[in-house]
TrEMBL record:
<protein>
    <submittedName>
        <fullName>Uncharacterized protein</fullName>
    </submittedName>
</protein>
<dbReference type="Pfam" id="PF00106">
    <property type="entry name" value="adh_short"/>
</dbReference>
<keyword id="KW-1133">Transmembrane helix</keyword>
<dbReference type="InterPro" id="IPR002347">
    <property type="entry name" value="SDR_fam"/>
</dbReference>
<dbReference type="InterPro" id="IPR036291">
    <property type="entry name" value="NAD(P)-bd_dom_sf"/>
</dbReference>
<dbReference type="GO" id="GO:0016491">
    <property type="term" value="F:oxidoreductase activity"/>
</dbReference>
<dbReference type="InterPro" id="IPR020904">
    <property type="entry name" value="Sc_DH/Rdtase_CS"/>
</dbReference>
<keyword id="KW-0812">Transmembrane</keyword>
<keyword id="KW-0560">Oxidoreductase</keyword>
<keyword id="KW-0472">Membrane</keyword>
<feature type="transmembrane region" description="Helical">
    <location>
        <begin position="12"/>
        <end position="34"/>
    </location>
</feature>
<comment type="similarity">
    <text>Belongs to the short-chain dehydrogenases/reductases (SDR) family.</text>
</comment>
Length: 350
């Protein structure tokens, strides 16, 4: 041991870099091999997914059905239920391929902000998950972004609205089905965001809620481990889903401006408002990825892998930009935002 330590101390800089690079490649190789093993008997692994009307939740529900899993899909609207049911038909009622079982879909109305709605769903799952020995996974996918505008234009109502869905919704849902997860030694899968790592200007309510839900998952990961339950967080970057519908976001910015107090409008000026609308659209058009399958695949891996990750970074903006930035000292992050701010809209009073 001492001889090894002595040898390491006498490495040249190039040798140290090579050794570190080789060690990193070895880590990636071993991780890749371990993560390639999938659970068996997926047709017995019941999955409960919230926010299945569209986007990631809908895509995940269909992927789970394709692999023969029983899927309980919470939708906010009847239109969402009907649309999902139509798309699910190709995976249900047909002979399974390659020996796979057929998937089973149970889609229902659910509002994650309502105690009554969530309790009603929990009772439904209690009855229907008996044959599966409990619930294998809950996927807290439902969420909204809230208004994309500076904090000066927002009120507490906006913060509470976003937190009710993005923070208290997952807490409420997880607590309601926790006993079913304990029976199956299941998994909690939670979508957070790169905004749970880096606070982006103009996304105050969303960022606060995502930091909160990420913290909640870090706590219950430790608390539920003795019961055989694992907790997994997704940290995707920006993806082109209905969550960031351009027209909706622009209308919300317009609404925030119209409702702002006169002194705030005077302080910022009409030009700031117009420039902010354009900057938001440019940012989303530049950075938002259309490859939503990347997030769906990460969800699916967290549910079905024998050795899932505790955290998944999804999207090149997450992996190459926001996650590395989150490890920088706060002062350096502030300096970077200061440089970026030179090219951003300025309040009229500044």
């Amino acid at each position: 041991m001492l001889s090894l330590l002595h040898s390491l101390l006498h490495l040249t800089i190039l040798e140290a870099i090579f050794l570190g690079f080789a060690g990193f490649l070895l880590f990636l190789t071993v991780r890749y091999i371990l993560e390639s093993f999938q659970l068996g008997d997926l047709h017995k692994k019941a999955v409960f997914i919230t926010g299945c009307d569209s986007g990631f939740g809908r895509g995940l529900a269909l992927k789970c059905l394709e692999h023969g899993m029983p899927v309980f899909a919470g939708c906010l609207t009847r239109q969402g239920i009907e649309s999902l049911s139509v798309d699910a038909k190709k995976f249900i009622g047909k002979s399974g391929e390659k020996g796979r079982e057929n998937g089973r879909l149970d889609a229902f109305l659910m509002d994650v902000t309502s105690d009554e709605s969530v309790e009603k769903v929990a009772k439904r799952l209690e009855e229907k998950c008996q044959e599966f020995g409990g619930l294998h996974a809950v996927v807290n996918n439902a969420g909204i972004t809230g208004k994309h505008i500076a904090d000066d234009f927002l009120d507490m109502e906006e913060y509470l609205k976003v937190a009710e869905i993005n923070l208290w919704g997952p807490v409420r849902t997880t607590q309601a089905v926790k006993k079913l997860l304990k029976r199956a030694k299941g998994r909690v899968v939670q979508v957070a965001s790169i905004c749970a790592r880096v606070g982006l200007p103009g996304l105050g309510p969303y960022t606060a809620a995502k930091y909160g839900v990420s913290g909640y998952c870090d706590v219950i990961r430790q608390e539920l481990r003795p019961f055989g339950i694992s907790v997994h967080i997704l940290e995707p970057g920006f993806f082109d889903t209905p969550l960031i519908n351009r027209q909706k976001i622009d209308a919300e910015i317009q609404e925030a401006w119209e409702l702002a107090p006169s002194e705030v409008k005077k302080e910022y000026g009409v030009q700031y408002f117009q420039d902010s609308r354009q900057a938001t659209q440019l940012f989303l058009n530049t950075i938002a990825s259309s490859q939503i399958s990347l997030v769906v695949d990460a969800y699916f891996h967290a549910i079905t892998a024998r050795h899932p990750r505790s955290r998944y970074q999804v999207g090149w903006d997450s992996i190459l930009l926001f996650i590395p930035m989150s490890y920088l000292p706060t002062g350096l992050q502030d300096y970077i935002f200061t440089i970026i701010g030179l090219f951003m809209p300025k309040p009229a009073s500044r």
